[in-house]
């Protein structure tokens, strides 16, 4: 199980290295990239994102409270930090 968790972290860092993404995009790309027999659940993805954030490798950009998205929950976009880019390169 630890190997899958490490692979997931590495894959997330790699995808975010290319471009910032929100959770739905990440899940879609990870399912296509990793091709595991089971679909990656949000219950697996979001704890991974939270752990990467605590380590300082990624940050979550909260959506702006604008008139266009009032009443709807905005998408949180995750992006790599300088430390995350360095960790990914290692």
Structure description:
With 90 residues, the chain is mostly helical. It has four helices and three strands. The chain has helices at residues 2-18, 23-34, 42-54, 82-89; strands spanning 21-22, 58-61, 77-80. A three-stranded antiparallel β-sheet has the order 1-3-2. Helix 1 (2-18) packs across helix 2 (23-34) and helix 1 packs across helix 3. The longest helix has 17 residues, at 2-18. The two termini are 22 Å apart.
Quick recap:
The protein has 90 residues and is mainly alpha-helical. The chain has helices spanning 2-18, 23-34, 42-54, 82-89; strands at 21-22, 58-61, 77-80.
> What is the terminal separation in angstroms?
22 Å
Evaluate the radius of gyration: 14 Å
- Oligomeric composition of the shown chains: single chain
Mean of pLDDT: 85
The parts where pLDDT drops under 50 for at least 5 residues are none
What level of helicity do the residues show? 55-70%
**Count of beta strands:** 3
Largest sheet: number of strands, sense, barrel closure:
3 strands, antiparallel
Strand content: 5-15%
């Amino acid at each position: 199980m630890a190997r899958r968790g490490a692979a997931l972290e590495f894959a997330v860092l790699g995808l975010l290295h290319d471009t910032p993404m929100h959770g739905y995009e990440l899940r879609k790309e990870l399912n296509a990239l990793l091709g595991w027999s089971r679909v990656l659940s949000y219950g697996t993805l979001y704890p991974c994102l939270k752990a990467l954030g605590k380590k300082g490798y990624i940050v979550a950009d909260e959506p702006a409270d604008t008139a266009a998205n009032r009443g709807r929950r905005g998408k949180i976009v995750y992006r790599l930090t300088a430390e995350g880019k360095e960790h990914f390169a290692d």
